[in-house]
Design a protein that fits this description.
Elements lengths: L1 E5 L3 H13 L3 E6 L3 H6 L23 E4 L4 H13 L7 E2 L6
Parallel strand pairs: 1-2, 1-3, 3-4
């Protein structure tokens, strides 16, 4: 699968590490609304990857968008924004991360 990973906070970094270690899918894009700030910081990830502007989803080819946010309320807000941008709801994945 070609995956867009949305969010690069603590949960997003954990997801990225798992994806990189397991090779579970192809990450085509990692985005976050705070991409500029995040790119200027050194993220604690195994492999450095540029965090993109969420607008980049518009011209990406993907099979699904995984929202890597712990809060259901915040994830629901992101999901609404993605659907409003034209991302099919059936391609959006969110599940509360296990602790």
């Amino acid at each position: 699968s070609r995956l867009v990973l949305y969010a690069a906070g603590t949960v997003g970094q954990m997801f990225w590490q798992q994806l990189t270690m397991t090779g579970y899918c192809s990450s085509v894009l990692w985005c976050d609304k705070n991409f500029a700030v995040l790119n200027s910081m050194a993220l604690n990830v195994t492999e450095r990857f540029e965090i993109a502007d969420p607008q980049s989803i518009d011209w990406s080819q993907y099979d699904c968008v995984a929202i890597a946010i712990e809060s259901k309320k915040a994830a629901d807000e992101v999901k609404l924004n993605l659907v409003a941008k034209g991302v099919p709801e059936t391609k959006i994945i969110w599940e509360r991360p296990a602790r």
